[in-house]
Amino acid sequence: xxxxxxxxxxxxxxxxxxxxxxxxxxxxxxxxxxxxxxxxxxxxxxxxxxxxxxxxxxxxxxxxxxxxxxxxxxxxxxxxxxxxxxxxxxxxxxxxxxxxxxxxxxxxxxxxxxxxxxxxxxxxxxxxxxxxxxxxxxxxxxxxxxxxxxxxxxxxxxxxxxxxxxxxxxxxxxxxxxx
Length: 179
Fold this sequence. Notes:
The protein is mainly alpha-helical. Helix content is about 80%, strand content about 0%.
């Protein structure tokens, strides 16, 4: 018979792999069909929501497999493994596409992001001096280098982990028979 940790790790790994495949597939489809999608703000928000939903689903399924009782640690572990694994698979796909297969596409997306930012800042009436300063800073950054993508993974995972703490707090439920 499997213990709780094995159940949680098995479930969370399966959810994480599924999440990673979905995110990697969406990245690949945007790359192949419409690279301009990478500059749309709502795509990032949608991806972020998908990651959180998969983390919640993982915790919910783990709780169900543990007969409706899950500790805070078990809930967070289920969430974290799912999110970390799925997000990592997605990051690897980004590295593969933008750093190895097609670095020119990364440069194109960077240029489109700069154009989009200029339009956004002009729309809000930002002074030209501030716009130029912000765009110069953007031009200096290589958001698609391997190091930048791994940093983004780490910072994103840290933020998602804070949300995971809240999810674990909401889902935790002690088994009264163990008290």
